[in-house]
Design a protein that fits this description.
The complex is a heterodimer of chains A (329) and B (266). Chain A is mainly alpha-helical. Chain A has 13 helices and 2 strands. The relative contact order of chain A is 0.12. Chain B is built from 12 helices and no strands. Classes of the chains: A mainly alpha (329), B mainly alpha (266). Chain A: Keywords: Oxidoreductase.
């Protein structure tokens, strides 16, 4: 998802008996669905896990602007340009909002961004794929934001108050983006030329599997899930969410008149779900390690933005100080 | 009264309508090109807050461009719509200010370019809010609110960078001569604008020039930046479609899809 493979630093779950009094009170609160707020006591591992998860999520919003930035200067009409600009602006807003939620845990935005730039912190694997035609702007909205929503709808009930509230707001905007993305594709499929229809299918072919990978490794290879679930940071397993996404997306795919690049994708009446082919997990881990198609470019762009902007930020601070001194005098 | 109603189509497009179409293209093209340049900052701004602000200003401007170009298309009534005007005209047919087509440069150039444009833009829009044409008046009334914020933001950045650190001051000093000559278009006017003003459709070009000058003087003063002597004409004119070489490349990128797929529906 926007946060994948988030380390909890915990090898196995403690039983209630093994917990200290504070830990037990904390866990009981979680079990009773009472939200944890910034000033409440929390185990350090819970705090660190949340910082990692929320910062990953925020980094993903910011890095996620880049594949769209690749087309915003080439949007094919004034309406599409305005829509894409508004979407990108929303994403910057989400990033800001999430960094603020993260700062309520005592983390520092600049420090966490520095971790992103050094390669230590991660962001969603999906944004390491290039956007190669205009239909990608539709497919990203439909599939990538769509996958994000499946995850984030559940995260609205996450145990940490500020994160949960951020998710409620972000979900509203994301579902708007998803509908808009789908509408881009639908317009191209229903009213477009053959060349445009080919663009749509091409975009789906390239983004389908990376979108499924967004939910993270399958449950048996998701070592941190048990603790995150016990803390109710995470509320449903990767595989459950992935299945839900596929089940809701395939009918939309059919309505478009497109296909998924998966010959094994078919309805299983017995399970009441779609069956799908094996995900190439090697690719997922390689992309996460930094060996995806655009990892270097994405990080280089972000690093350069912050490095090139250093003098601007320094000037803003210096000016504010001068103004403050003038007012004080 | 809408301008289109003052003309009888069977006698062809009257002179005033032609003037107004020209003027709408100037407004729309400048807003669009400035917005396009702001899009280029996506993911590259010096701080996250600036990502939001730059895209937000760009969004306002492209929205305004759409309004102006739609009106121009209606008046021209030649089968072209706003998208056609934006995405199918060559650089010689574009009527934007030379200033806005200039490359973004560093953040000092971007800020200064935005400021020069905003100071002019607000004065122009304020003039238009008194237009005898209700459509012009309506679009301008909405845009004035947006551009008031744009100018507040860009003038604050000029002050911050001008009176910030030694480096930021030097960068602003370097940005001024890069952009200054293009400001000649912000304080002169041509026969089209004078006729439109005389007809009560747009604000007084002299007042606009004076308002621009005052705003720049004020902001440069608090930014501790030296004010150059007024810029001189230098044989290019955005109004006449005589642009710098930068516009053609900008349009090649912006217009790529509609040009490459002329029959497509997006």
């Amino acid at each position: 998802m926007y946060a994948q493979l988030v380390e909890t630093g915990v090898k196995r779950l403690k039983t209630l008996e093994e917990m200290s009094e504070q830990e037990r009170a904390f866990q009981e609160k979680i079990d009773a669905e009472i939200k944890i707020e910034p000033k409440n006591w929390m185990p350090d591992a819970y705090r660190q896990t949340l910082i990692r998860q929320i910062s990953q999520h925020a980094h993903s919003e910011i890095v996620g602007m880049l594949p769209e930035g690749n087309w915003v200067t080439r949007a094919p009409s004034l309406k599409r340009k305005l829509q894409l600009m508004a979407k990108i602006q929303d994403e910057a807003g989400h990033g800001l909002y999430l960094y603020s939620a993260m700062e309520t845990l005592g983390a520092d935005r600049d420090e966490e961004v520095a971790k992103l730039h050094s390669g230590k912190a991660k962001y969603s694997s999906i944004f390491n794929y290039p956007t190669l035609n205009w239909a990608d702007m539709g497919a990203v909205g439909w599939l990538v934001d769509g996958a994000a929503i499946v995850n984030q709808v559940v995260l609205q009930r996450t145990s940490y108050g500020p994160y949960s509230r951020a998710m409620i707001r972000i979900c509203k905007e994301e579902s708007f983006h998803q509908r808009q993305g789908y509408e881009i594709l639908l317009t191209m499929m229903r009213h477009g030329t053959q060349a445009q229809k080919d663009m749509v299918q091409d975009a789906i072919n390239r983004l389908w599997w990376p979108a499924l990978m967004m939910f993270g490794p399958s449950d048996e290879h998701s070592p941190n899930s048990a603790q995150s679930m016990a803390w109710k940071i995470k509320r449903q397993s990767n595989d459950e969410l992935r299945q839900r996404f596929i089940d809701q997306t395939v009918p939309q795919l059919e309505l478009l008149g497109c296909t998924a690049p998966d010959p094994e994708l078919k309805w299983n009446a017995e399970r009441g779900h779609y069956d799908f082919g094996a995900i190439q997990w090697e690719e997922f881990y390689e992309v996460l390690k930094g060996n995806g198609p655009c990892n270097q470019e994405r990080l280089a762009t972000r690093r350069k933005a912050i490095e090139d902007g250093a003098w601007v930020r320094a000037a803003a601070v210096a000016h504010a100080r001068k103004k403050h001194n003038k007012n004080a005098a | 009264m809408q301008a289109s109603m003052s003309c009888r189509p069977k006698w062809g497009i009257c002179k005033m309508n032609q003037d107004l179409i020209q003027y709408l293209l100037r407004l729309g093209d400048s807003a669009l090109i400035q917005g396009q340049r702001l899009c280029e900052w996506c993911g590259r701004a010096p701080a996250l807050e600036e990502e939001l602000a730059l895209m937000n200003v760009g969004l306002d401007l492209v929205g305004q461009a759409r309004n102006w170009l739609e009106y121009a298309a209606e008046l021209a009534n030649d089968g072209r719509d706003a998208d056609h005007l934006a995405f199918r005209r060559d650089e010689r047919a574009y009527r934007n200010l030379l200033l806005v087509e200039q490359p973004n440069g560093d953040f000092a150039v971007t800020v200064l370019k935005q400021f020069f444009y905003d100071a002019w833009h607000l004065a122009v829009l304020e003039g238009l809010t008194h237009s005898s044409d209700s459509r012009l008046q309506g679009i301008a009334a909405k845009a004035v609110k947006e551009v008031t914020y744009h100018l507040r933001r860009s003038s604050e950045w000029v002050e911050r960078l001008g009176d910030g650190t030694e480096e930021s001051h030097q960068r602003m000093l370097a940005a001024i001569p890069q952009l200054w000559r293009f400001t000649v278009e912000l304080s002169d006017s041509d026969a089209v604008e004078q006729r439109l003003h005389a007809a009560g459709l747009i604000g007084d070009p002299q007042q606009i020039a004076a308002a621009w000058q005052q705003q720049v003087e004020r902001t440069f003063d608090s930014a501790t930046l030296p004010l150059p002597a007024p810029a001189c004409h230098f044989y290019l004119s955005g109004r006449q479609g005589l642009h710098s070489e930068h516009l053609g490349l900008l349009l090649a990128e912006m217009q790529f899809l509609p040009r490459a797929y002329p029959d497509a529906t997006w």
